[in-house]
Specification:
The protein is mostly helical. The chain is built from 3 helices and no strands.
Length: 99
């Protein structure tokens, strides 16, 4: 059997590879970068809004109401309505799932 010339015969080298230590090091570096933490927080907020938003925001994204067409943002329609009177926030939350 071949032996490594740099190691004396019979001596073992203990190699410890732990995924926990590697993840701890990665998250330690991420935690030091405020721009990256902000980006992760924003991405998490977007994903949560897309997943939970349609259940929390009760307006229909497909209901047409010509009386509400092209309304500016208000309390009832936070992002306003389009030319068919459809709520833009409801359409955005449902459309995010497709993306």
């Amino acid at each position: 059997m071949g032996t490594d010339a740099s190691q004396p015969a019979g001596q073992r080298i203990a190699v410890r590879t732990t995924t926990t230590g590697a993840w701890r090091q990665i998250w330690g570096r991420i935690g030091q970068d405020p721009a990256l933490m902000g980006a992760i927080a924003l991405l998490t907020l977007i994903v949560l809004a897309i997943l939970v938003g349609p259940w929390l925001y009760p307006l229909s994204p497909t209901e047409i109401d010509f009386a509400q067409a092209t309304q500016p943002p208000s309390l009832t329609h936070p992002l306003g309505t389009n030319d068919l009177g459809q709520d833009q926030l409801a359409r955005l939350l449902v459309g995010g799932r497709v993306s």
